[in-house]
Amino acid sequence: MTTVLCRQSRLISASVLMWAAIGLSAGLRAQETTLTLDPQQTQISFTTSDTIHAVHGSFKLTRGSITFDPATGKASGQVVVDSTSEDTGTGMRDRKVKKDVLESQTYPEIVFVPDRIEGAVPPQGDFEVKVHGAFRIHGSDHEVTVTVQAQHKPDGLAVSTDFVVPYQSWGLKNPSTLFIRVSDTVQISVRSIARPSAATSGISAKAAP
User: Considering the entire predicted model, what is its pTM?
Assistant: First the structure.
């Protein structure tokens, strides 16, 4: 009788420990996750066109981090780009864009502020999510949703996104001249490595819309 009771006691204890472990694991997976972009491994390029040819250039990332709750999809953080770093390789054109279009001395930062993430974030493999938020440029916020592709890598998440900025309709000046007409939109391409913080390295959950 005593032996049977001992066995039952051990089984009950084992069950309690097992369910506690499952509960802890689920809690860890559902906790808030913070991803930090590495400026040294971030490429921000842009393309527009004029009546002569396509114009290619780049910006530099100042800093970037996004925190999101997998249970609700709620997100926060900032991705900050240095507007004074705009570079097309042509000094005269870059000075004109910074002075007359971006007005970089007055608005030195271009900022994306996320507020919601939609989509599944699995623990491995490739995936795609939509990130909604405000794109702040030239002193004004504009609502945007960007599609982000990601892949788990040994050194973090390789993330990429491509989207169009209709800068003229957003209130920025079009740098066209009498003889050269410039497109009123810019295609933006971002490639980066995002690393989870040590406290939230177990990225495995689904963010709700």
Answer: 0.78
